[in-house]
Write a structure and sequence with these properties.
By secondary structure, the protein is mainly alpha-helical. A hairpin with a 2-residue loop joins strand 2 and strand 3 (about 45). It has helices at about 45-55, 55-65, 70-85, 90-95, 105-115, 125, 135-165, 180-190, 200-210, 220-230, 235-245, 255-265, 270-280, 295-315, 320-330, 335, 345-355, 360-380, and strands at about 30-35, 40, 45. Helix 2 packs parallel to helix 9 (about 200-210), helix 5 (about 105-115) packs antiparallel against helix 7 and helix 5 (about 105-115) packs antiparallel against helix 11 (about 235-245). Bound molecules: acetyl coenzyme *A.
Length: about 400
């Protein structure tokens, strides 16, 4: 109804690109993906090489600063990240204020936003200036501190969200353990004197963290950059990214895969499930990807890691069903035609389940490593040549033309 707004179509070129299928919003030197060939590289290094030979924190340094660290750079980065794991004791009250059955992702999202309130030095509007400039040492050191804090405290906040749900006391991050070892300690520690994380599980978690560290402009990373483009502090931007990742089409998919496998039950029920997917009554969670049109290269690494974990924990009872589902989908014309193949989430949930993590904690295990990628992109954006331009997309308006207001009693 109403007249079309004048000249709406005469304001220059405006491209309608629903879901950003073809829009590049930034130039980036961080992560390369070739979705047709199934290639993923961090700063040029193939993910398979990194997963086999590197570690999560080494890759974090690589993603954020652009090159593999020397030994002393690595040691410095690791000790800063681990040192910043300790949370202010006030945070205990914050976590205890949630409902007893709050989803850990709700807690974690809120916790990142809460964290920002501790560090006004990271908030440009409170400082009244642009904070970050390439070549300015004070500004780069300020940025580094926020990076150490967010990566260091991600495990602590995640473990607090885990323990509060179980009515258990919080654990101060230990010294002398690796990043993933410290995380497992904070999750599992029940007061034993000689607690040590199982080395196979510690290594498996490190590999999973490493391959989840970045994946260029997925929904959550885009949200982080969209939010940060207003020059808000990185804690608020990370909280926004965390909220975006929570959805079942993104980081919630690893949780959705297990719920799907439980609902299918035995392998003999797989054909009926596949038919329901083809009738669009169900979604095959853990399959399909906006960028990959072949298997996600990370899915092979996860599959291999699963075998190492199952050797310790025993096989997950859902593994047979998962394998039957995978094999059936991979040779079905519906999935072949649409180039649908397993993504990283198809197998990762089975590992987390075997390691004893509760189902709704799985997306948290995605956020903890992914803060690395978000921070790498945030740093790159803050230091980009020419400064930050606020992200403000346009729309194609399809609503009413001008209308005159009518008092309520005169409306038909
Ligand atoms: N099950 C069944 N059909 C699917 C699936 C799936 N998992 N994924 C896509 N399709 C179908 C679509 O219905 C569509 O069919 P059509 O052309 O006949 O309408 C076609 O494949 C193309 O799919 P789109 O939805 O256009 O693909 P898009 O790039 O928009 O979505 C997404 C990608 C969201 C990942 C999608 O594949 C999906 O929902 N997968 C399941 C959820 C999942 O595993 N998410 C994790 C992604 S990876 C990550 O975040 C780590």
């Amino acid at each position: 109804p109403g007249e079309r707004p004048e000249n709406e179509t005469e304001k220059g070129l405006r491209v309608a690109d629903k879901g950003f299928l073809n829009t590049a919003v930034i130039q980036s030197r961080i992560t390369y993906i070739d979705g047709e060939a199934g290639v993923l590289r961090y700063r040029g290094y193939p993910i398979e090489q990194l997963a086999g030979r590197s570690s999560h924190l080494e890759c974090a340094y690589l993603l954020i600063y652009g090159s593999l660290p020397t030994r002393s750079q690595h040691n410095h980065f690791e000790s800063e990240v681990l040192r910043h794991g300790v949370m202010h004791s006030d945070a205990q009250t914050f976590f205890r204020s949630f409902r007893y059955d709050a989803h850990p992702m709700s807690m974690l999202t809120s916790a990142f936003a809460m964290l920002g309130s501790y560090y006004p030095e990271a908030n440009p509007s409170l400082q009244g200036q642009r904070l970050y400039t390439e070549g300015d040492r004070t500004s780069l050191e300020n940025m580094d501190r926020q990076i150490y804090r967010i990566i260091g405290k991600a495990t602590t906040l995640a473990a607090m969200a885990y323990r509060v749900r179980q009515g258990r006391d919080f654990v101060t991050p230990p010294t002398g353990l690796s990043y993933t070892g410290s995380f497992l300690y904070q999750m599992d520690h029940l007061g034993e004197e000689n607690y040590a994380p199982n080395p196979v599980l510690e290594k498996a978690l490190d590999v999973l963290f490493l391959i989840h560290a970045d994946h260029e402009l997925n929904a959550s990373c885009t949200t982080v950059l969209q939010t940060a483009s207003s020059l808000v502090d990185p804690y608020s931007a990370v909280a926004a990214g965390c909220a975006s990742l929570y959805g079942p089409l993104h980081g919630g998919a690893n949780e959705a895969v297990i719920r799907m496998l439980i609902s299918i039950g035995k392998p003999e029920n797989v054909p009926a499930f596949i038919e329901a997917v083809k009738r669009r009554e169900k979604t095959l969670s853990g399959f399909g990807h906006r960028v990959y049109k072949t298997s996600d290269p990370r899915s092979f690494i996860v599959r291999k890691t699963a075998d190492a974990v199952f050797a310790v924990t025993g096989k997950d009872e859902l593994l047979e069903t998962a394998m039957a589902l995978h094999d059936a989908a991979m040779k079905d014309e519906y999935f072949i035609k649409r180039k649908l193949a397993p993504n990283v989430d198809f197998w990762s949930g089975l590992i987390y389940r075997a390691m004893g993590f509760p189902l709704d904690f799985f997306p948290v295990l995605f956020v903890v490593p992914r803060v690395v990628g978000w921070l790498a992109h945030w740093r790159q954006m803050m230091l980009q040549e020419g400064g930050v331009k606020i992200w403000r997309p346009r729309q194609i308006y399809t609503g009413s033309g001008k209308r005159d207001y009518m008092p309520v009693d005169e409306r038909g």
